[in-house]
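Help!! Second protein's tokens look totally different from the first
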Amino acid sequence: MLFNLFNRKYEPRPIFAVLGTDMHCHLVPKVDDGSKCVEESVECLKTLKAVGYNKVIITPHFQTPRFENDEDDIKRRYEELKRQATEAGVDIEMVGVAGEYRIDSGFKKRLENPRFLKISDKYVLVEFSLHQQMMGCDEMIFDMQMKGYEVILAHPERYPYLNVNGVRMEQLKNQGVFFQINVLSLGGFYGEEAKRRAYEMLERGWIEFMGTDTHNTMYAQALRDLSCNRKVEKVLEKYTFMNDTL
């Protein structure tokens, strides 16, 4: 009853089928600021299927000191969720667990003995602080690339200090960093500024991936509503993304 929160005004439409895979969400319960229980994760996974996704890669936060997660523990929790989701009749392929790694005060130490949970055994999803970029980010990203990792920057449209028309974002692209925007940004979920920046990045051809960044049933409801948005549907038709390669 608690998680039957969805507004039935709009039936979800499978517009995200063209992407195939959601490669950024927080549905391993009780490990970060995402799902709080298995029931909530199951409800969200069912919504991902309803709006068109057929695969999902779950990406818990790794952040110092807020979310001091351990990779082996996350893998165990993910396998348990996968078992419980199957028992609950979830009809979406759970193809793996990765991580969303904050480049923060603990990241340099993490690089000394990397155990990154990777997307498709290839990409490492990283994020910056939403408020201020940490000094030395470029060097740490370069170190990752020298170690053979492909780096995806999560939701660049949400960092107000990264000017779309400025040098900084272009440097990141020239450095070979992939960009992933949140689909909910296209509907204004994070505010009009993030929405505007997301569309500008799309126009520049800077976006390789799109993720839902689903945390809970509130995000799931927003996804259901967004699936009825014709402008977003046209974006999915106009641009080519790499989600279906995962």
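Here's the second one for comparison:
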Amino acid sequence: MVNIKLLKGNALELLKKIEDKSVNLIFADPPYNLSGENYLTCKSGKIAVCDKGLWDQIENIYEFNSKWVQECVRVLKDDGTIWISGTLHNHPSIGVILKKLNLWVINDIIWFKNNAPPLMQKNRFVPSTELIWVASKTKKYYFNYEIAKKLNNGKQMRNLWEIPAERHKTPHPTEKPEKLLERIILIGSKEEDTVLDPFMGSGTTGVVAKRYNRNFIGIEIDDNYFEIAEKRIASVRTEGILLKLLEKIEVGNNIQLQFQSGLTTK
């Protein structure tokens, strides 16, 4: 049985209580620092001040990122990987920090949302991507190449991931699709490995980790989102889920190969 450990509070403090080199994979979707009077968004077709919550208002984003990334590196195993999601608002500072900590930057994944909502403004391009840094402490890190190929119809997986944005399952404003976390967790960890999410939000990482038989540590500062995550993760069924997924992928790949074969014989 998997071990699920959910911690409520400040990630900077709670990360210090986790053992050195005890985590196999870290997925972090940190605050992008987009909330405040100087940041605007669109609500119900009208321009409004962006206010995701106090957790998204940080005075010094570079200092904040430096502290939590250093703690994550400390708890990460030597063959583990850290995946950090972001946008242009915080992604550059994360990249600089990873290099300063002498981490091996494996990839920068571009998550392309082909159904991103249109903009009201007419002075810039429609934001349709998020970026994910993938890094490790050494060049000897775990990476399931075969699973990646299966998830990509039998072909090498590229660093451009086209995964549509989904209607949120919870009120959390930055909830990630489970399909995105499925890729990351299945490629970057093994069954019974430990997955850490220091900014758990509504618990998507924990849901996927538990579903695929991974241990999980989640940290969340917001009381409401913590409660939502706790209930979501508790309701997850695990029996045979991974086997069913792989069987589904295998069937899909075979159909694709047969279709391609049919095209080449005509």
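Reply: Different proteins will give different token patterns, so don't panic. Strands lie at 4-8, 23-28, 40-43, 46-49, 76-86, 104-112, 129-136, 160-162, 194-197, 215-220.
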